[in-house]
UniProtKB/TrEMBL annotation:
Subcellular location: Membrane
Native source species: Carassius auratus (Goldfish)
GO MF annotation: an example: cytoskeletal protein binding
Descriptive protein name: FERM domain-containing protein 3
Chief location of this protein within or outside the cell: membrane
UniProt keyword annotations, A-Z: Membrane, Transmembrane, Transmembrane helix
Membrane topology: Single-pass membrane protein
Gene Ontology terms: biological process: actomyosin structure organization
CDD domains from the UniProt entry: FERM_B-lobe, FERM_F1_FRMD3
Region Disordered: start-end pairs: 381-443
Transmembrane regions: 539-561
Superkingdom field: Eukaryota
InterPro entries: Band_41_domain, Ez/rad/moesin-like, FA, FERM/acyl-CoA-bd_prot_sf, FERM_2, FERM_central, FERM_CS, FERM_domain
PANTHER family for this protein: 4.1 G PROTEIN, FERM DOMAIN-CONTAINING PROTEIN 3
Amino acid sequence: MLCYAEPRAMKMLRFRSPSVSSLAQEVQCTVRLLDDSEISCSIQRDTKGQFLLDHVCNHYSLLEKDYFGIRYVDPEKQRHWLDPSKPVVKQMKCQQPYTMCFRVKFYPQEPIKIKEELTRYLLYLQLKRDLYHGRLLCPFADAAYLGACIVQAELGDYDPEEHPADYISDFKLFPKQSLKLESKIMEIHRNELRGQCPALAELSLLQRAHTLDTYGVDPHPCKDFTGSTAFLGFTARGFVVFQGNKRIHLLKWADVSKFKFEGKTFYVIGVQREKKLVLTFHTSTPASCKHLWKCAVENQAFYKCAKSSQIKTVSSSSIIFKGSRFRYSGRVAKEVIEASSKIQRDPPVVHRSQFGHCKSFTSLSHKQLIMNMEPLLPALSSSRENRDSSKNNGLSALKDSVHLSPLKPSVTSEEVEVRDNHVQERREDEAVKRMRADEERREIPADHEDEACAALPISDTAYSPCASVVPTPVEESQGGVDLLFQSPARLLKELHADPEMQLELQAEREREVAREAFRQSLYLPSSGRQQMQACLLSAARLVVMATGLLVILLPLLLVLLESDLDISFLHDIRQTPEFEEFHYEYYCPLRRWFLCKLELMTEQLWGD
């Protein structure tokens, strides 16, 4: 099997950090790759996460590394992304040796813009994992096409002499495969995908997968204000919420104002139809809520900002000196695409895992995988024409960059000429289709874009990925997913009808009104009388502050001067005539009077 795998007994690599004091202490790390192989290394205690990420990328010879990250799980089973700017040891709370996973962190919005085949292959491996674990939920037709793409990439063209009647059953592609689904996969594999090399089949999968509503969703389970289970996610389009078998919310990045959290409560503040929108969700633990907030901040910065210089440090709360502060430190999506277009090197050799790797998924069959893949109707937001055009666009672009060698070497010159003519005609037809699709997309009214944000079915089954792979732990009380299908208008109406939410919104409005009034009083005074009142108020505050300081500092200075502290500046003050006059004429009589009164009070108390 040819793949990027290294044996466990490999020679350990060491990262030397500048700190001399920490050279004697080394930490063993194991990173699991996307094909379930592992690489091991030895790092110093002050080695930062970026060194470990660079090590894995160098192992692959990967340049488009901004889409990827390293993930780990703490002892409380809470998943985290390794921060590249912080030391690895300070982030890992578990015992050594450390075990982490190399995964896709930011999914490209348009996979066709990925420059190198190696990057597309790694994204293909991630999407294959998403399909198997139920994160990439899709209707029956799309599931069959994606499964056929995987079979074509792993096996090549269908050959009745080599492939038995039930050869699809050897592939564990979905949590629950029905015979009808396997039959449809075989039909597409035999007819539609014949002749595609592995790189082309993988791109076909990417082009279809990126049109799905669950593409790039790393589900975060939580409760909404009604107590129903929902899954939150972040995609290239924006913030999404899945409940039951529907996407009930899609808030685009342009409409998202801020994310914040307090304890176990996560807030999404944005604008919908020119009105302020506040969505509230409750997680199972404060740690999961903080992880959700960090993921929201990172995805918003990566997909929304045009330059990394525009990224600002954000706070989890609007209250001063309270909450967490965090800043995404990587490059944004537009910068990554620009950097990819400037790559000038010979494409690295991609060592793909063979068919045997697919059987490795059978070791996970004991987990509770709860995605029912019964026949479904394709009910996605994008039309069939748009999918075909995007698929043709991707395939034609890959044909220009990938050498499509025939599977059987015995090909005559006449067959090559006929094939080249056929390919040229197909490219021309695809170009015409792309032009028509572009014209149709330009003619789509703006109302359709708003409809895409409404409640949309993603399948006939509830979105409920495997509990062992979701980024935050699910409480036992959550159970299954409540099939509460509501439209956004009804959900928003009930949200504002909630008494607690109504009080919170009212308090938020009052704070905004107070802040606006304060700004107007500072910068736009309406009359001279208001200016005079503001000046008098400032002067009164200054007098009060000065008086308070005198009341506190003068007694303190007096105690220091009358004490026995042998300090130079205090000794100099004691030698001045003014202090001696104050000491003998005021301080000593006042002290004798105070002691006398204290003695009298003591005698009265003892006498009684």
